């Protein structure tokens, strides 16, 4: 029995006990009241307030707010007028309206003074829409305030990075749709999702749908889940959105903002299941590093924002992944489920840096070739994509749908890496990410746990630039190192696979006239040079010689 069932059963027993004391025992139909969370069902209406309190962690410890009922805010008239409008929507009897209006204004005024002293109330800040479903529960004023305050504190985002975050998720999961928004000059989802996040969809959906969404959302106990709910709404409407290609920007924004309005009560279960799927198909570190920054209290949020670079999200080229998550995958990739996030790692550092230490599952792609030898670069990219398909097909440790790029970790050097990533994004390839902090972060993480020799292949501390504390220099890295070998370690791959990675690295530095033949030979038969090695993944398909990069902007 899960928490949801236990809680509702306890409430059911408590209610029955109270009734028995008055009327004697009577039958109760649990099927009508118990709605297990794992079945994606809403909470029974009778128990909704108590169940919400449990998941909001305020059950039994609600604070006793002393309402001053002094209505002296500069924006008091605006607040009062908005309260009048919400009372009309509630449909109370005329004799109740005055009392309800008084409670609403008192709750919002108290919240403004105690929880938002530096941010005045405005009609479009989402408070009134967020409060409406809570007021509709018809609880006492004190309970209404506590529920509203808890929902706002735990589930309403604190920073504008929320909109960059959703933009990156759309780019990651549906690059074609992301490209459409860019062509319409909609560079931030802020213009059409602001009220979604401010009101948890209460501004767009009818009350029945809002309750169903909130029931499941609170059961998740994960504030970040709203990003995946928003993502599903957008991605599910992609055909409708593409049909707006000839409409002006304003019309597109208006249509996008109204997307949640189409949700019906029966859609909510599938809606949340799809959101869980996208959650599962997104790198964990993206969510965990941002959640505390976006949702915790202001003091904690500022602390976490200072730990992370403040431009971490707003200036991200694509979805960032932490070095820790990449290393965990490298160590345990064979244990990952097939439908989970599996990385195909592309190391974009110069050949000399790569050959002085790299992760065992990393393919090498020298990003400088994009400008120096574009033909060789295009052929190398095609080769890597062929390797990716073959690795996925054979279930290789290095195979994965999620393409993850690794740069140096130096801003100047990683400009080349960013150009490579941009070329993949231009092709609207799904699941593109970039390791935040690059190889420097990977190296530091391994060093902290004394795993440099086990975690890296061919690590040469005498030449490794991170070990030497030096900044990379392009000028001295035009000659590749000898063929890559594999150390005996928990991270190590097969010898044939290691040879494959080394050969690709060497081939990309060859003359463009020779690179096609070398790559085709390596990818078609990666183990040909070592007949005694265990077989690695190979591709039976012919490499497409058409350059994949049409232009470099």
From TrEMBL:
Chief location: Golgi
Low complexity composition-biased segments: 478-496, 526-541
All copies of domain Rab-GAP TBC, residue ranges: 42-221
PROSITE patterns from the UniProt entry: RHODANESE_3, TBC_RABGAP
UniProt keyword terms in alphabetical order: Developmental protein, Golgi apparatus
GO BP of this protein: retrograde transport, endosome to Golgi; vesicle tethering to Golgi
Pfam assignment, any one: RabGAP-TBC
Keyword match Acetylation: no
Top-rank taxon: Eukaryota
Keyword Isomerase: no
Compartment(s) of residence: Golgi apparatus, trans-Golgi network
InterPro entries reported for this sequence: Rab-GAP-TBC_dom, Rab-GAP_TBC_sf, Rhodanese-like_dom, Rhodanese-like_dom_sf, TBC1D23
PANTHER family, per the entry: TBC1 DOMAIN FAMILY MEMBER 23 (PTHR13297:SF5), TBC1 DOMAIN FAMILY MEMBER 23-RELATED (PTHR13297)
Protein name: TBC1 domain family member 23
């Amino acid at each position: 029995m899960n928490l949801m069932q236990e809680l509702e059963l306890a409430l059911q027993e408590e209610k029955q006990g109270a009734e028995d004391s008055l009327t004697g025992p009577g039958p109760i139909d649990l099927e009508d009241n118990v709605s297990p969370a794992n079945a994606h069902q809403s909470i029974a209406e009778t128990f909704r307030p108590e169940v919400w309190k449990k998941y909001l962690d305020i059950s039994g410890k609600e604070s006793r707010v002393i309402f001053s009922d002094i209505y002296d805010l500069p924006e008091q008239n605006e607040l009062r007028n908005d309260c009048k409008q919400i009372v009309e929507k509630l449909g109370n009897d005329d004799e109740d309206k005055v009392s309800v209006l008084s409670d609403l204004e008192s709750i919002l005024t108290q919240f403004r003074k105690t929880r938002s002293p530096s941010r005045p109330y405005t009609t479009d800040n989402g408070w009134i829409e967020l409060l409406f479903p809570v007021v509709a529960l018809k609880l006492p004023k004190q309970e209404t305030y506590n529920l509203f305050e808890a929902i706002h504190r735990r589930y309403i985002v604190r920073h504008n990075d929320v909109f960059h975050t959703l933009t990156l998720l759309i780019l990651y999961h549906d690059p074609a749709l992301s490209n459409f928004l860019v062509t319409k000059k909609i560079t931030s989802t802020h213009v059409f999702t602001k009220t979604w996040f401010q009101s948890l969809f209460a501004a767009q959906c009818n009350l029945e749908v809002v309750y169903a969404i909130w029931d499941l959302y609170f059961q998740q106990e994960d504030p970040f889940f709203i990003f995946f709910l928003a993502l599903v709404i957008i991605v599910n409407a992609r055909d409708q959105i593409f049909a707006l290609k000839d409409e002006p920007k304003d019309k597109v924004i208006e249509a996008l903002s109204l997307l949640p309005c189409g949700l019906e009560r029966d859609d909510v279960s599938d809606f949340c299941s799809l959101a869980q799927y996208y959650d599962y198909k997104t790198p964990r570190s993206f969510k965990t590093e941002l959640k505390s920054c976006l949702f915790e209290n202001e003091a904690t949020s500022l602390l976490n924002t200072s730990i992370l670079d403040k431009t971490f999200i707003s200036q991200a080229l694509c979805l960032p992944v932490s070095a820790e998550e990449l290393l965990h995958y490298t160590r345990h990739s064979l244990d990952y489920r097939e439908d989970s996030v599996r990385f195909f790692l592309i190391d974009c550092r110069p050949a000399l840096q790569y050959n002085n230490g790299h992760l065992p599952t990393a393919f090498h792609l020298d990003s400088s070739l994009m400008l120096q030898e574009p033909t060789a670069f295009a052929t190398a990219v095609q080769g890597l994509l062929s390797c990716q398909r073959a690795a996925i097909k054979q279930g290789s440790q290095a195979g994965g749908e999620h393409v993850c790029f690794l740069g140096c970790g130096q801003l100047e050097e990683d400009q080349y890496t960013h150009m490579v990533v941009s070329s993949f994004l231009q092709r609207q390839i799904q699941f593109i990410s970039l390791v935040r902090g690059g190889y420097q972060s990977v190296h530091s993480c391994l060093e902290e746990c004394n795993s440099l020799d086990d975690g890296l292949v061919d690590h040469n501390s005498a030449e490794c630039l991170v070990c030497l504390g030096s900044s990379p220099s392009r000028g001295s890295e035009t000659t590749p190192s000898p063929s890559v070998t594999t150390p005996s370690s928990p991270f190590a791959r097969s010898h044939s696979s290691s040879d494959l990675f080394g050969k690709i690295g060497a081939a990309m530095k060859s003359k463009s006239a020779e690179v096609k033949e070398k790559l085709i030979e390596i990818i078609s038969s990666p183990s040909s040079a070592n007949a005694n090695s265990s077989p690695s993944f190979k591709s039976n398909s012919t490499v497409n010689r058409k350059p994949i990069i049409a232009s470099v902007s």
